[in-house]
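Task: sequence design from structure.
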């Protein structure tokens, strides 16, 4: 598939997805959102991909929603059909779901400004890293609207209600140090090179686990956010009934007995 705004590189079992609408600072347009939706849906079905790293090729991570594009499409600037958006335009909202629902764990590597829709995007990822110059803003209240791409629903599970409300009500920029203190990012790095090296190190650590075990763990974690504990446990038990029959599970047991690293195949 030809992509205009996204660059994809695959190294062994790791896919690196780079937002590449660089001149527009990765402002989220309908076209970019569509490509994000499509690439993450595709990666979710690719058996050879076990981990995804999401980064930016622009001088910042993301400048937020492309307001000009949104006004052209009638999303903002008037009361026009927010409840009647044509199906072809819904990827502006669906792209975040596609990242979250991708079976493979996604590591976000953030540098520079990450505002509005950019924060929506990284809140869908499993793990977030950033550079020391990164800053984050949940900006919508500053322009008189409500964030509606999922960040208000996802952030409380990452940083808690208190910090989420602080970010949402003030709309101010939070530094990388504040983001780490809140738990928004796992770690802060001096520059992009160090951050990407760390992202790839985490990816390599994930590759040491059975890919089907990781993917099903992600599904159970996502499901368990919105159901009673017992329902989450029931899904985990169901998953294990299937996973115990896989080649990788048998290989893990054999490797343990033989005191060697397992050689997983994703089967």
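Answer:
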């Amino acid at each position: 598939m030809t992509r205009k705004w996204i660059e994809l590189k695959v190294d062994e079992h790791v896919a690196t997805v780079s937002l590449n609408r660089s001149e527009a600072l990765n402002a989220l347009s309908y076209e970019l959102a569509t490509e994000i939706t499509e690439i993450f849906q595709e990666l979710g079905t690719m058996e050879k991909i076990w981990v995804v790293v999401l980064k930016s090729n622009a001088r910042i991570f993301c400048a937020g929603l492309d307001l000009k594009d949104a006004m052209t499409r009638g999303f903002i600037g008037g009361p026009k059909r927010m409840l009647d958006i044509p199906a072809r335009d819904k990827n502006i909202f669906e792209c975040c779901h596609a990242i979250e629902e991708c079976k493979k764990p996604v590591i976000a590597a953030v540098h520079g400004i990450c505002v509005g829709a950019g924060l929506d995007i990284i809140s869908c990822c499993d793990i977030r890293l950033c550079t020391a110059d990164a800053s984050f803003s949940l900006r919508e209240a500053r322009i008189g609207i409500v964030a509606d791409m999922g960040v208000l629903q996802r952030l409380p599970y990452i940083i808690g209600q208190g910090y989420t409300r602080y970010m949402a009500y003030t709309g101010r920029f939070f530094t990388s140090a504040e983001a780490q203190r809140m738990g928004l990012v796992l770690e802060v790095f001096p520059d992009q090179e160090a951050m990407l090296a760390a992202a790839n190190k985490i990816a390599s650590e994930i590759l040491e686990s059975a890919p089907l075990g990781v993917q099903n763990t992600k599904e159970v974690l996502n499901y368990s956010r919105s159901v009673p504990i017992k329902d989450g446990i029931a899904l985990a038990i169901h998953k294990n009934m299937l996973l115990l029959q896989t080649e990788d599970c048998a290989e893990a047991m054999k490797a343990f007995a033989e005191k060697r690293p397992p050689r997983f195949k994703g089967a």
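The mean pLDDT is 92.
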